[in-house]
Model the fold of this input.
Amino acid sequence: MVQKSDEAPRRRGRPRSFDPAEVLGAASERFRTRGYAGTSLDDLVDATGLQRPSLYAAFGDKRAIYLATLDRTIERAGKGFDRLIAAGLPLRDSLQAMFRTVIDGYLTGETGPSGCIMVSTSAASAVDDAEIRERLAAFLKMEDDKIEQLLTAHGDPKAHAHARLATATIHSLSVRARAGASLEDLDALAAECVELIAG
Amino acid sequence: MVQKSDEAPRRRGRPRSFDPAEVLGAASERFRTRGYAGTSLDDLVDATGLQRPSLYAAFGDKRAIYLATLDRTIERAGKGFDRLIAAGLPLRDSLQAMFRTVIDGYLTGETGPSGCIMVSTSAASAVDDAEIRERLAAFLKMEDDKIEQLLTAHGDPKAHAHARLATATIHSLSVRARAGASLEDLDALAAECVELIAG
Done:
């Protein structure tokens, strides 16, 4: 199924070329909507527009695709925090920008507000799956560490504890978004956290 | 399948009597471990010791059993908060007792620390399932309201905002427990929240 060489002759039935990053993004959105166990291979075919053999050749089975979407999320979220830290905004502005990005993202979704794929889907499969659990733990550690780094750069003497409270607020925003909370309610919770840390 | 009357004659093949509350508790534990989509009917047979026809007669299909476990969780957690409020402890002791109960519960599970069935499994299915989403929203509202009631009884002028931060901390404790966080880490996060509210 896999093309062994770039020089393999073009032939009928050969899958059209596609952008792996775009396909992974589409798969990630479907997993974010329905969770790992709730997403079928047919869902992924529907979401990505690729047939099963092409998906399998490019990424492996459903579990491999899911793990790849989690790795993608950890990397992208980490880079987002790095950009925020590099921007060097005042503390309050940094925190407000962080929560703005988080909440706006959490309110998007294929069929409704879908929060965070890690917090709200990988956690559901983490108890019995060590590889998913390790990725969830890595994501939480990344969040804690990056926010602590941001707060330390601003001389917050309680950077460690405040970072964990900010992360806790982010986790709750994901759960609340999926429960149908309003933008106003999510903003109010974020504002209270900003006030506690930067007030 | 269902016995229409208590006076129906006992006959061969009639399911043995069982305690519906106990069966629902066992089903709830399996759902808490594997999530709604990740739990099969065979899992429920294994967890409860009942065969499919008995489960179906008593509770309905898998979805009906799951919704019943969520209703059970909302009711039990609500009663737990009511007992805490009725105990009339000093504010700090109340919050410490609340987090002690939450963390100890979150570290239990069939195969590992499993957190909260609502926050960490129902959220995964909430986007595309209105009935699950409504129950998750009801649970979050119950948590917010009960903790606000507790704080208001202690004259906390920021009871509304503090309650939502305490709830956020509870949500994060569930995610972190499922990610394999240590008791020490969970206790540290809870202690920071107590300090912010009662310090």
